[in-house]
Structure formats: structure tokens, C-alpha cells
């Protein structure tokens, strides 16, 4: 808990907007918006999430195959009331298929809510660069407005990347979820850790469990489903930007 809070405070320093015109980050000048190293990687994302009615901490471990457009994640969520849940998602974007595994059941959806992106998309604007410590870590911050009426998510999101390596550092978002005028506020602020280039066990991340159904479900999960809430929000930050399909 203390480590997540400490990391969140550090990340908050990165989103400070300077009163002076910011210099362009070195990675933007050298490699544009697609400077992230490698097309296969594993990563962990930890954050604190506050909604209109609850508070929870989440830890999302993920694997990303940007070449084959396969993405897998396991999310452990701890609610303030003591409830703990685990949710697993497998995204096979080339097949427009997403598996949602929760509470011992698996749903096969013919709808990829958000596909993770290796490149920062054009709807994000460069905001600023900031450093942590005595110049040990320099981060470039990008921001965008979110207006996704298809999935009922509206607000703003900020992403930060290391200027030196272009590895993701953290993200912060404030969004409203639902259908107007009944919108619920959700804030999510967290950091990325344990970056590893390559994927040690692709089948573990991308192969659906044997109990998953062969056919797509006709029912669509609602964004009002809280376990899905945080996964949709996590996808905002999962390596690039909000890119709804």
C-alpha cells in the first residue's frame, strides 16, 4: 500500500504543467510517437481507483504482442470493504474477440473494447517534461480528451514515458462513465513496473482456458459492471492511448 501511494505521488510530479513553453522531449524529436522498444513485452500496472461509490487498489499484470495483436492481462483488485477479486482478459484483436474471465466463468465477446497501442496516437498532445530526484529520471507527459460514446466513457487521460528509454512510467485519468445525464466519476492514477522485453510463456497469456465457450456471447457486458470498469480504464493506459473500436 505504501509503495503504491509513494509511486503515485512521484507520478503526480510528472504531470505538473510548466508555466513556460515546454521544450520538446528528446524522444519525440528522434523517434516520433513510436519510440517504445520492442514489440513483445510484459509489464505490471498498479494504481488506486476512486469511483462515485467505492475505492479500490488494482494490480494488473499484462503481456503485449503488438505484431500479432494479442494482449493478455490478469487483474487483482482489492476493495476498501475487504472484498478481493481477480479478472482475466484475453484480447485477440485480429479476430475482434475478447475473453472475459471472472468468478469461474468465461465469456467470449465479439467486441474488442480497447486495443492497446504501441504508438502514441494523434489524439494525444505533448504536455511537458519533468524530472524525478536530482535529474535521475526524465519523463515526457502526453494528454488527451476521451469522448467514447460507444462505451460511455468521457474525460481526460495523461500518460508518461521515460525520455531516455521510452518505457512507460505511469498514467492518470479522470473520467465519467455511463450514459448522460447519469454519469459516475472515476479517477485512476498509477505507475508501471517490472518492464520486460519479450514474453516468456505466450500460451499462458493468449490461449483461452478449456472451459471458455467456442461461440461468441450474444449479450454485451455493460460498463456499469464495476469489475469491467477498472479493466476498461486500465486499457486507457496499456501502452499508448485510448483507441476505441
CATH topology annotation: outer membrane lipoprotein receptor (LolB), chain A
State the end-to-end distance. Answer: 34 Å
Q: Tell me the radius of gyration.
A: 18 Å
CATH class annotation: Mainly Beta
Largest sheet: 11 strands, antiparallel
Structural class: mainly beta
Number of strands: 11
Low-confidence stretches: 1-31, 222-245
Series of secondary-structure elements, N-terminal to C-terminal: HHEEEEEEEEEEEHH
Plain-language structure description:
The chain is built from 4 helices and 11 strands. With 245 residues, the chain is mainly β. It has a single domain (2-237), classed as Lipoprotein localisation LolA/LolB/LppX (outer membrane lipoprotein receptor (LolB), chain A, Clam). It has an 11-stranded antiparallel β-sheet with strand order 6-5-4-3-2-1-11-10-9-8-7, with helices on both faces. The two termini are 34 Å apart. Residues 1-31 and 222-245 have low confidence and may be disordered.
SSE blueprint and pairings:
Elements: H1 2-14, H2 26-31, E1 40-51, E2 55-65, E3 70-79, E4 84-92, E5 97-102, E6 105-109, E7 125-132, E8 137-148, E9 153-162, E10 168-179, E11 182-197, H3 202-206, H4 226-237
Antiparallel strand pairs: 1-2, 1-11, 2-3, 3-4, 4-5, 5-6, 7-8, 8-9, 9-10, 10-11
Amino acid at each position: 500500500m505504501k509503495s503504491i501511494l509513494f509511486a503515485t505521488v512521484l507520478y503526480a510530479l510528472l504531470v505538473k504543467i510548466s508555466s513556460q513553453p515546454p521544450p520538446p522531449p528528446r524522444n519525440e524529436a528522434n523517434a516520433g510517437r513510436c519510440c517504445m522498444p520492442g514489440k513483445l513485452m510484459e509489464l505490471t500496472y498498479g494504481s488506486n481507483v476512486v469511483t462515485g461509490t467505492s475505492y479500490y487498489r488494482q494490480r494488473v499484470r499484462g503481456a503485449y504482442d503488438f505484431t500479432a495483436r494479442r494482449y493478455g492481462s490478469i487483474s487483482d483488485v482489492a476493495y476498501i470493504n475487504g472484498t478481493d477479486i481477480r479478472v482475466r482478459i484475453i484480447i485477440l484483436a485480429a479476430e475482434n474477440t475478447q475473453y472475459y474471465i471472472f468468478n469461474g466463468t468465461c465469456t467470449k465477446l465479439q467486441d474488442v473494447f480497447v486495443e492497446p497501442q504501441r504508438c502514441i496516437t494523434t489524439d494525444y498532445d505533448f504536455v511537458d517534461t519533468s524530472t524525478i530526484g536530482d535529474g535521475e529520471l526524465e519523463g515526457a507527459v502526453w494528454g488527451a480528451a476521451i469522448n467514447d460514446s460507444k462505451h460511455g466513457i468521457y474525460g481526460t487521460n495523461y500518460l508518461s514515458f521515460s525520455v531516455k528509454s521510452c518505457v512507460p512510467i505511469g498514467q492518470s485519468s479522470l473520467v465519467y462513465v455511463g450514459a448522460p445525464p447519469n454519469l459516475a466519476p472515476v479517477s485512476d492514477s498509477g505507475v508501471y513496473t517490472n518492464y520486460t522485453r519479450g514474453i516468456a510463456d505466450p500460451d499462458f497469456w493468449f490461449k483461452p482456458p478449456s472451459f471458455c465457450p467456442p461461440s461468441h456471447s450474444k449479450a454485451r457486458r455493460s460498463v456499469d459492471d464495476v469489475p469491467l470498469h477498472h479493466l476498461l480504464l486500465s486499457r486507457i493506459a496499456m501502452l499508448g492511448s485510448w483507441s476505441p473500436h
